[in-house]
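Consider what follows.

. . .
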Amino acid sequence: MQLRGAAAALFLFGVIAGAQSPQTAPPRDTAEMSARDVPATFSTKVNLVMVPVVVRDAKGQAIGTLQKEDFQLFDKGKPQAISKFSIEKAGESAIPAEVATDETGIDKEKSDKPGKPLSPIAQRFVLYLFDDVHTSMPDLIQARNAADRHLTDSLDPAARAAIVTTSGQGNVDFTDDRAKLHEALMKLMARPTMGPAGSECPDLSYYSADLIQNKNDTSALQAAAAEVLATCDPPPPRESPQEAEQNAESVTRGTASRVLSLGERDARLAFTALEGAIRRLAAAPGDRTVIFVSAGFFLSDDLRQEETDILDRAIRANVRISSLNARGLYALVPGGDASTGAGAGGPQVMNAKARYQQESAMAEEGVMEELAYATGGRYFHNNNDLKAGFGQIAASPEFVYILGFSPQNLKLDGAYHALKVTLKMPRGLDLQARRGYYAPRHLANPEEDAKREIQEALFSRDELGDIPVELHMQFFKSSDIAAKIAVVARVNVKNLRFRKADGRNNDNLTILSGGFDRNGNYIAGMQKLVEMRLQDSTLEKVLNSGITVKTNFDVAPGSYVIRLVVRDSEGQTMAARNGVVEIP
């Protein structure tokens, strides 16, 4: 199924990019009003810091009765004014939409006859991201089987699911075809890029390698060097203890360097997959959730900026990340099991390895918790009932508060800012919120702000009413395989703020029509720029009649959602409407 527009911009897993034409005021002798097609271009910049917050009672139920005045927000310990506040309520994503009329003409009588019912249009999107790089095969099998049972029981007609892997192998785009999803799940397999535990000597984790290479931890270095002396490469008889220790430390640093490089590469693989998942969901017009299934992974300080960028992107796109630890309920064997040479090197080496093993496991889990808590999701761990876990984290929190603030005296230095959100009256409530962000290195310009606002409005389902707009749609079916959708927008300009200059009344309207198929895939966009340079007499007429803009799309029979967004440049006000087209 494909939707084609005369100026359509097509994409599947990416974000549309480009630049709008400059909007300069024309000389007085030019036309008073002109409309032209421009590329549907978007850009994402962070202006406000957005902080999703979930507040739960003692029973774990999210509550939605709080107001902006109930919250306190601190940036590096300094209180901040909450300038943006909203409450997202689960289940309110149903489309209040205009329905297209059938203007088929000679085939109209035929189309009025009962036919095959059309499939429901998607309203909820869940992308299951399996980390097949960091998760062992036994854990992955347990998780995929639980996910398969969960999807069999929970995939309703308005929901779509996608299967994506960190390795990029075996991906399936959004669908309601359970057979496709089952097949993709059964093909999942562990694809580690690092060797198995115990294949290096000394046996170092990414966490331990980071301690040795990046943090110059002498205790970690000495413990690993002792393992080298005891099990890896015993020193020759003539080598002095001091020379043997130096050689062992040299071997350890070499191993740590290799493990660190591989660990960073694998962590970036996970982040690349997460970023791709968020971009894909950003193009889905409805409730959006990533379920990240992993055994966890460690992040060095060098990767923390990338983590924050991913969180910013998810929050801006209203994508919730929930995490499920594929290990379930597990216990660590102190120093490792027999396959890793547990006990080699004596009690000192074993105790050190056990400590670093525990710290590494906590750090690996911490990343999954951060991804969930910062975006309004949930983290399921320490429990072997993974099917129940999928059910819990796939369900959207009933209420999510979105707090926005503009940091005071913010330096554009890329520095990390710790965040804290509290309630003025806690009353035994549990609060989950974002923990921090990195400052930008430059501010967005007004043109980038406009593009971002239009992008967010297009991929939302919210109705915006700053500008009165009427949406009318018709479809014309010319054959069993071809049809045309006409989208007509009538804009009431009485509330617009025209700027007076050179005897003209100036304003620009950006009118964007976007099409989505039944699986929520963004197929095409048509953007028109209406430049108004109106004399007073013309303005009076336009105020009474409004402005009408028409857009046509060529389509195949099926179900579509049409999204109409209007923005004016002077007042920076917006309108958004939804339409549903069902062509039998």
Q: What stands out?
A: The longest helix spans residues 241-282. Residues 1-29, 39-46, 109-117, 337-343 have pLDDT under 50 and may be disordered.
